[in-house]
Request: fold
Amino acid sequence: MSKQTPRKQTAAKHTTAKQATAKQATAKQATAKQATAGGKNPGTRPGTGSAGAGGGRIPAPAAAPAPEADGAAAKEFSRRRLLGTVGAAGAAGLVVGGAGGAAGVSAAQDDAPEALSTLGSTRVPFRTAGAKHQAGITTPLQSKGHLVAFDLAPGSDRKAAAALLRRWSRTAEELMAGRAPDADTGVALDAGPSSLTVTFGFGHSFFGRTGLTKRRPLELDPLPDFSADALDPKSSNGDLWIQIGADDALVAFHALRALQKDAAGRARLRWQMNGFNRTPGATAHPMTTRNLMGQIDGTNNPEPSDQDFDERIFVGRDAEQAWMRGGSYAVVRRIRMLLDDWEKRSRHDQERVIGRRKDNGAPLTGGSETTPMRLDANGPDGLPVIPANAHARIAAPESNQGAAMLRRPFSYHDGFREDGAPDAGLLFICWQADPLRAFTQVQRKLDRGDALSPFLRHEASGLFAVPPAAEPGDYVGQPLLEG
Reply:
């Protein structure tokens, strides 16, 4: 959130003082009326609610809903009453599809709620007219994430799968708009959307279970085995995959719980992984995120502004399976980092393993994080400045015939292992139009001699077809399931 200027701070103080004076006057008038009537005060309502996202103070509602309002109206009141000023702020209070935005504008009435902070009020739409891609692919990284896979319940068919996707899409749309779904748990009653995104994908096995094998894309063929893999089948793959991201932990959990409840009787949980990133605004200057090794991670990511970005990341119009046009393929890997071994290495050794400086992510050949690597540069000893087996060199597009993928990971920490080592690392997620020409090509090369590999263990894996965004009135995957 941006800092206020002294002028704005002074104005804010004056406004607060005026509001306080007005409230005191109102309180005195109410007391006088009660004394005149000889009545008793029926009880006082707390003047403030709980702290919202970003630490903002949220006053309690001015009045309670009528007792008979026990349905959608009461539910809307309980949550949306706290966000009333976000709607009043219009474009100034919401950032569509972004990671930051302007704070909402407080209403003039004394009993109106204050605006949520920018962190809480930021909304990413579930669908927009003309939008091609699901949210959560190019959306800026959120601070909290859940990855979860389901298998369809025994006996489920194409019709049952369609019913589940229809229900999930409706719930996701409500949650991403900051509205409470049916039978809400109340976990996020006082929270705004907080950049929530929900992204759906289909695994290889989904098509066999629904009788749709003829519509399964070739790009969804299982990933090859890699020598460094130590995969747990129970924590890999799955019929259906969901990625949840938000800038508030309760908002993310609320979405996870709502979607899990929707699946009851239709699909069974296969595995779940929880991740995190740095909270927006936690650093003095915006920068690429760091992983748990302390390295800046994702420097060479393709940018949406790149001329060939869509071609690399999203399925084109000429795809054989029409239902996937505008979609993407997600590779998911749980990669445990051997942090105890890594942290025993000197900073100099760590930088040579990666091929970049630890403080600012600049290549060892000099410059800043965004300076292109000079892969042909040699040092005084005649050896490459960026070692031949450095991770950044081997993974670079220049070393892989231009292969590139959009990396959008979360870190994770699941406690400690029996030997005391942290069970922590990276929930690696990458997006591409064709996994064989992107992830698989790069990983094969890394598998043959990456200096970073001895410090990593690939423990779970999955590949999912993520269809394009649902059209207004439709649900995710409808062209596949009803086409």
Observations:
- The first helix runs from residue 6 to 37.
- The radius of gyration is 26 Å.
- The longest strand covers residues 422-432.
- The CA atoms of residues 252 and 411 lie 15 Å apart.
